[in-house]
Design brief:
With 183 residues, this protein is α+β, with helices and mostly antiparallel strands. Helix content is 32%, strand content 15%. The chain has helices at 2-7, 42-53, 76-87, 106-114, 123-130, 169-179, and strands at 10-11, 17-18, 27-33, 58-64, 147-150, 156-160. 37% of the residues are buried.
């Protein structure tokens, strides 16, 4: 599994071909992001987390996705401008992908297979239901801002529901545990 994640072809938000291989040896927090979601303010917390922990080896990686009620309609350029101008995002952003369904990107196929259940399960699903939205069944990504934690060894260490924010103790403990492991 670990080699698979590092080898999956990706594109940066600027269109450059790359893979997670360039982040080998680091702890990765992979997040599907959106600009027009009720959870969009999480960009701020994710950027603060990135600034606080990047020197220790954490990379926050944003993957824009338009899978949930059209909440990421913009082009890559518009998404990049929004993130930079609104939230001063400096963590790496990638090109827009699909994180659910038939067109699910191979990275998200691997992530959801590796860890089907998310920490924090329940409240977000209930909130969506309150809005008349049926959340995707497990193991699918529930909504924007779901988080996958990949350890230095390239294995998926944990998964967190969209409403687990960047300052949530459960997320921070998991990140610190992975950062404490040797490279």
């Amino acid at each position: 599994m670990s080699h698979d994640l590092y080898d999956i072809p990706l594109r940066s938000i600027d269109g450059a071909q790359q893979s997670l291989g360039r982040f080998k040896g680091k702890v990765l927090l992979v997040v599907n992001v959106a600009s027009k979601c009720g959870l969009t303010p999480q960009y701020e917390g994710l950027e603060k987390l990135y600034e606080r922990k990047s020197a220790e080896g954490l990379e926050v990686l944003g993957f824009p996705a338009n899978d949930f009620m059209g909440q990421e309609p913009g082009s890559e350029a518009e998404i990049k401008d929004f993130c930079t101008l609104t939230y001063d995002v400096k963590f790496p952003l990638f090109s827009k992908i699909s994180v659910v369904g038939e067109n699910k990107h191979p990275l998200y196929r691997a992530l959801t297979q590796a860890v089907p259940n998310a920490t924090g399960e329940g409240p977000m699903r209930a909130r969506l239901k309150g809005y008349g939205i049926e959340a995707n069944p497990i193991p699918e990504v529930q909504w924007n801002f779901e988080k996958f934690l990949i350890g230095r060894d390239g294995r998926v260490a944990a998964r967190f529901t969209p409403d687990v924010t960047a300052d949530d103790p459960r997320l921070l403990q998991a990140i610190d545990a992975e950062l404490a492991k040797p490279v």
